[in-house]
Specification:
By secondary structure, the protein is of the alpha+beta class. The chain has helices spanning 11-19, 25-39, 53-58, 105-122, 124-135; strands at 45-50, 63-71, 74-81, 84-93, 96-103. The radius of gyration is 15 Å and the shape is globular.
Length: 137
Amino acid sequence: MTEPADDALSLEMVTAALRLDSADTAIYASVLTKSLSEALPPEYVTVERERSMSDRMRGRPGEVSRVEVHLGDQVMTLAVKNGRPVAEICREVRGVVLSRQVVPIQQWASALASALMDHAESNAQAAAALRRLVIGS
């Protein structure tokens, strides 16, 4: 096998970054939603936050409760509901959801990594976002 170029990102690297520290799935989901919301451009990601009364009074943005990643007709959703992660992979055309599949978080992370790699091949902005997600700069 040949070694990938230093600047190239492999599917394994992306998947590993998405699975980092997944021992506690609720904490993992919370950290991952925050990482995705910070790394991906606004047109690819939609973030929903829950704000407590304390958050509102102190002007804090609240905790990230749901992240939706839009890559073409694929919509990948990760939410934290009642302290548990819920991962979905959807197919959407012109705002209409054609299929919705709830999957284990590991399968979701692999599917997201693969979709991001495919999208990054044809889009420089997506490639830069993917580097930020993996490298963390």
